[in-house]
């Protein structure tokens, strides 16, 4: 009897499927829901419209419609009204066509490829700082660098003499800026084959070093650009200025004839070293390093075929009206009159607030309708139906983007973004590896991250890329791109990751 009972139980188990919810089943059901909602037009609406229109395609129905039309046109007033309606319709269509926004393409970009001679170890940094900092400040420096998520050697410009601090911060800053700018711009022009005289807009963004003439003027002089080129220098806008420069270029290209816009995102940390004992100002010495990127945009339809990406969205959020946000990154003198960049303890919290405001504004433009419906249902349940214990729905931005390039402002910043957006280790890899190898290169950091993704062979045609940056003020900026073509990992000899990409990722 026991054996028979066991056999019956086994048979029942074989016959009855297991309906217990599993994580895999939930994932499959969620994917099916998102697919059905996102493709509703093709799956339901279009077939319904087509089926309702089929009866009108019957030969008898077509003949009857033509007969009625010919009969109506015998009336002069009807003919005039029909002609007026046709002219109005064609005029409207022509106006919409002529006034449609131009598509902006990213033809190519080039990150500054550092000379190995600029690589400086932590031991060298400590040795340089020991001559100008107190023992307490030096200990603080060592503690921060150990926890920074940056490798032992980073790229640092110490000037021709190699002294620290440099005898002339201004001269050293100019040398550094010119080295990076000319290196990156020269590479992007060589990659694209674009003649500098065909460039109609030049934008340079750099925060703390703004010489006279400006760096944008230096580019015009160096590459002998034409007299009517529009030049802009964005200063003091922090690490988010790279996205702001792209947005400015987009707006300018919309009002120009077929032309190119050259953007140079760069920082010159050498020009703003702090040699005092204020710990909030010492952080900038430890975080910022040498780097830059040159970006070539085009509004020419003919450039689509050779371009890498199409710009789809730009958005910035400015929290400057709030004093806490405004003062979170502030350049000022310390008690002894030494100038430095103060980074407050509120920075991470402020960055989180700025990110949430930015993604709230961006979400309706990028999230699929399926994700927006879930968000709306959650909001109605919490605010209208007053359902208790229901937590706010955090949108899944991985359904809107395949790649994330998050400004490598520091390990804590990346941790905060990863937590807020619920990203995976794979999503964060380009940002963390850029921080590890280059530290914080300010506004150019997310270009090094995109270069990393390209070197890894991750970018496929149609992929969407989200660039996120934070900067003083306090600002959060977003730039969204769609890949026009698949980027082969070995096609770019100028990519600074090409020769070392096999060594990454590294467990930090």
Please explain how this structure is put together.
Strand 12 (464-471) and strand 13 form a beta hairpin. By secondary structure, the chain is of the alpha+beta class. 46% of the residues lie in helices and 16% in strands. A nine-stranded mixed sheet has the order 5-4-6-7-1-8-13-12-11, with helices on both faces. Helix 7 (135-146) packs across helix 11 (279-287). It is globular. It starts with a helix and ends in a 25-residue tail after the last strand. It is built from 17 helices and 13 strands. Residues 1-25 have low confidence and may be disordered.
Question: Main traits of this protein?
Answer:
single chain, 508 residues, alpha+beta, nine-stranded mixed sheet, two-stranded antiparallel ribbon, 17 helices, 13 strands
Detail the topology: elements first, then pairings.
Elements: H1 2-15, H2 23-38, H3 40-53, H4 59-72, H5 76-98, E1 105-111, E2 119-121, H6 122-129, H7 135-146, E3 153-155, H8 169-192, E4 199-205, H9 215-223, E5 230-234, H10 241-254, E6 260-267, H11 279-287, E7 291-298, E8 309-318, H12 323-326, E9 329-333, E10 339-343, H13 347-366, H14 369-383, E11 403-406, H15 411-421, H16 425-438, H17 445-455, E12 464-471, E13 475-483
Parallel strand pairs: 4-5, 4-6, 11-12
Antiparallel strand pairs: 1-7, 1-8, 2-3, 6-7, 8-13, 9-10, 12-13
Helix pairs in contact: 7-11, 8-9, 13-15, 16-17
């Amino acid at each position: 009897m026991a054996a028979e009972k066991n056999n019956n139980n086994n048979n029942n188990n074989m016959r009855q499927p297991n309906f217990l919810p599993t994580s895999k089943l939930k994932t499959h059901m969620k994917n099916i829901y998102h697919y059905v909602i996102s493709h509703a037009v093709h799956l339901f609406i279009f077939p319904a419209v087509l089926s309702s229109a089929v009866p009108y395609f019957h030969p008898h129905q077509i003949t009857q419609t033509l007969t009625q039309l010919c009969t109506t046109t015998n009336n002069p007033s009807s003919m005039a009204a029909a002609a007026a309606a046709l002219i109005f319709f064609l005029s409207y269509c022509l106006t919409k066509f002529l006034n449609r926004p131009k598509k902006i393409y990213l033809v190519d970009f080039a990150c500054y490829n550092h000379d190995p001679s600029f690589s400086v170890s932590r031991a060298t940094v400590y040795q340089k700082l020991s001559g100008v900092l107190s023992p307490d400040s030096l200990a603080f420096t060592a503690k921060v660098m150990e926890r920074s998520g940056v490798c032992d050697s980073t790229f640092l410009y110490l000037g021709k003499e190699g002294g620290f601090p440099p005898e002339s911060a201004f001269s050293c800053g100019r040398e550094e800026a010119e080295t990076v700018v000319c290196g990156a711009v020269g590479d992007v022009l060589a990659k694209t084959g674009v003649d500098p005289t065909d460039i109609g807009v030049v934008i340079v963004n750099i925060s703390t070093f703004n010489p006279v003439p400006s760096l944008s003027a230096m580019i015009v002089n160096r590459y002998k650009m034409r007299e009517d080129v529009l030049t802009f220098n964005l200063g003091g806008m922090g690490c988010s200025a790279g996205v702001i420069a792209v947005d400015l270029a987009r707006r300018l290209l919309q009002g120009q004839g077929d032309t190119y816009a050259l953007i140079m995102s760069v920082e010159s940390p050498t020009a703003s070293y702090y040699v005092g004992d204020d710990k909030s100002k010492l952080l900038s010495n430890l975080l910022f390093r040498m780097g830059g990127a040159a970006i070539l945009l085009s509004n020419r339809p003919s450039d689509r075929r050779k371009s890498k990406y199409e710009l789809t969205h730009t958005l910035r959020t400015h929290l400057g009206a709030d004093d806490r946000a405004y003062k979170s990154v502030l350049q000022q003198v310390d008690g002894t009159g030494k100038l430095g960049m103060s980074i407050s303890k509120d920075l991470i919290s402020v960055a989180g607030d700025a990110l949430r405001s930015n993604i709230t504004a961006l979400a309706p433009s990028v999230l699929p309708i399926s994700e927006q419906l879930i968000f709306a249902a959650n909001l109605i349940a919490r605010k209208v139906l007053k359902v208790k214990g229901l937590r706010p729905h955090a949108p899944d931005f991985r359904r809107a983007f395949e790649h994330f390039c998050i400004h490598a402002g520091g390990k804590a910043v990346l941790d905060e973004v990863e937590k807020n957006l619920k990203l995976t280790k794979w999503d964060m890899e380009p940002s963390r590896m850029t921080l590890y190898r280059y530290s914080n290169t300010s506004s150019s950091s997310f270009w090094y991250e995109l270069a990393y993704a390209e070197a890894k062979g991750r970018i496929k045609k149609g992929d969407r890329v989200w660039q996120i940056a934070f900067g003083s003020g306090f600002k959060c900026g977003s730039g969204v791109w769609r890949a026009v073509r698949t980027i082969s990992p070995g096609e770019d000899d100028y990519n600074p990751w090409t020769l070392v990409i096999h060594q990454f990722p590294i467990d930090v």
